Amino acid sequence: MSVFDPGDKPTDIGDERSRRTHALVHLGQAIENEARVVAEAAAATEKAASTAMWLGASLADLAAVTGKTRQAARKRWPALGVVHRRRLWLANHVDDIRWAVRVLLDNEADITVPDTSIFAEITDLDASVGRNFDESAVHEEAGPADRWFALDRLVDVVLRRIVDDAVTSGGQAEFAVFGARGVVGYYDHAVDKPETDSGLT
Predict the structure, then answer these.
(1) Closest C-alpha among 118, 101, 110, 82 to residue 170
(2) 134: which of 6, 21, 76, 176 is 20 to 30 A away, CA to CA?
(3) Are 168 and 162 a contacting pair, CB within 8 Å?
């Protein structure tokens, strides 16, 4: 940070010029700190809003907490629309996703991928989803919305990698990859579709 020294002032007493320069440097540092704190607080607030949305909150719910309108919440956190669409689609397709996963795992031996460890990850994620989306499930993950993050990763990362990279010799293995590709395609279509205001209420 450059040092700003406005020079001597007619009313300076003693070393007041150097004290003033030091005070101005301190002011500049304080402004930088303030900006950093504001940015960190804004990021934390946006993360809290996103978590609430992943847990099923609507823009109306956020507006009730913030004291602003739904439109203000949408403008402040534009990424929440995508979160809403992802969460809504995932919530309505848990069984479809798990079916696609089971068919893939049943035919794992006939599906060739560059990194076979992906099947271990898909097994672990599917087990986590099975536990955490059961009707009697209670929160057991590190974060309040981790069950949704796991389900989203299962589709958006793991299944996507498989359908992008998999090679089969046909038959049931090809059917398994085709089913997974359908899930990923349906997810992409739903996530990319703009929502109306009523869709976030």
Answers:
(1) 110
(2) 176
(3) no
φ, ψ for residue 115, nearest 5 deg: -125, 105
Give the Cα separation of 122 and 102 in Å (integer): 10
How many C-beta neighbours within 10 Å does residue 129 have?
21
Alpha-carbon gap, residue 30 to 51, rounded angstroms? 31
Q: What is the DSSP string of 99-116?
A: HHHHHHHHTGGGEE-S-T
Residue range 75-104, pLDDT digits in tens = 888 889 899 999 999 999 999 999 999 999
- Interaxial angle between packed helices 94-106 and 117-132, expressed in degrees from 0 to 180 and rounded to the nearest 10: 150
Q: Does this model's pTM top 0.85? A: no
Structure tokens at 22: 């030091």
Cα separation, 28 vs 21, in Å, equals 11
Residue 1 CA: distances (Å) to CA of 4, 8, 27 = 9, 21, 12
Spatial CA neighbour of 194 closest among 94, 91, 53, 80: 80
